Model the fold of this input.
Amino acid sequence: MSIIIKQDAFVTDAVIQIVERERAAALSAREWKHRLAGYGYSIRETEDGKHMLETLPHHVVLCELPKELFN
Done:
C-alpha cells in the first residue's frame, strides 16, 4: 500500500464511493468499519464530532466523511 501525500479530488471521490457502497452493504457500524479495514481505511471521530477517514496503518487523514453515513 502506498502512502497518499497529496490529496487528489478524483481519488478522494473514488474512496468515498467505496465507503458509501460498503456502508450500504454492512448490517451494522461495526461491520462497516471492519469492511473498511479490509480496504486499508479506518474511521476516527474527532473531539468536535466529525468523522475522518484515515489510512491504515499510518493514520493519514484523507477526508471528512458526510454526516449522512452515520444516521
About this structure: The chain has one domain: 9-70. Residues 9-70 form one domain.
